[in-house]
Write a structure and sequence with these properties.
Length: about 280
């Protein structure tokens, strides 16, 4: 139950972070947004170090660095995807991709589910698909470029989660600190190389920083959830984060929610209830 609640918290934080990151990327080049978001995330994790502890073993350094590279790619691809829009279609596409790989890794590592979990897990995946079916009659349709970016973002997110899960369970927040340090370095290096292409627009500092803080908290809750529960369940619950993005996009940007998405939200609630019984 603790793992489930942490995964739900991670899902909510990811959804809010993605919405804010997408908004920030609409005001300036995506790298300008990530330049603010990534260091803000690192600051949060450094503040958590004295509270939760950190052991910088070789395995923690290696898996943390790998997650950082994947995180940098996920930041840039996801925020660019959401900036193109529509958010209520593209965000769920990334979620479906981000769930599939960790579930496969968990099953290959020998994780098993009870009967309720065997029903709830595929039902949760169906919920992600339903939420992603956002383009009905009269609704905006994503471009091919946006869809390719969404698939790439989902794959990068999946790798980041898998790498974090592989880090030693007694390493504390070390994998997060190393990962965010690497992602910040990659981001700032890319921005320096592309400085002439970033344009004159200033980033939305507050929005971008808030996105980074929420992303950091989401990573922390996922890491704690994966350490106390099965990766197959935690990854799928975390992948329900588009619910938050979709609802925020509806309330703030007036993006249309298709009937199928509402069914998907209800299906997700049922799936979470079943997984809670495992």
């Amino acid at each position: 139950m603790i793992a489930l609640l942490l995964a739900l918290g991670s899902s909510l934080a990811y959804g809010c972070a993605d919405f804010l990151g997408g908004l920030g990327a609409r005001k300036a080049h995506v790298l300008r947004t990530v330049m603010i978001a990534a260091p803000a995330s690192l600051a949060v994790e450094l503040l958590l170090w004295p509270v939760l502890g950190a052991t910088f073993s070789t395995a923690a350094l290696g898996w943390g660095a790998a997650s950082g590279v994947a995180s940098a790619a996920a930041f840039a691809l996801l925020y660019k995807t959401l900036a193109i829009g529509p958010m209520n279609v593209l965000s769920p596409v990334t979620a479906l991709m981000s769930a599939a790989l960790p579930v496969g890794v968990g099953l290959l590592q020998g994780e098993h589910l009870a009967t309720a979990g065997l029903i709830g897990l595929p039902l949760a995946l169906v919920a992600v698909v339903l939420v992603s079916a956002g383009h009905g009659v009269g609704a905006a349709r994503p471009s091919r470029t946006a869809l390719l970016l969404a698939f790439g973002a989902g794959a990068a997110i999946a790798l980041q989660l898998v790498f974090l899960h592989q880090a030693p369970s007694d390493s504390g927040v070390a994998p997060l600190i190393i990962g965010r340090t690497v992602s910040s370095a990659v981001t700032l290096s890319a921005a320096a190389l592309m400085r002439r292409k970033l344009g004159p627009e200033r980033p939305a500092y507050a929005v971008s920083a808030a996105a980074g803080v929420l992303d950091s908290l989401a990573n922390l809750m996922f890491l704690l959830a994966a350490r106390s529960g099965d990766l197959t369940v935690v990854a799928v619950i975390t992948a329900l984060y588009p619910a938050g993005t979709v609802l925020l996009a509806r309330g703030v940007l007036a993006e249309r929610i298709h009937r199928g998405q509402l069914v998907g939200l209800g299906t997700a609630a049922v799936a979470v209830s079943l997984l809670a019984l495992t």
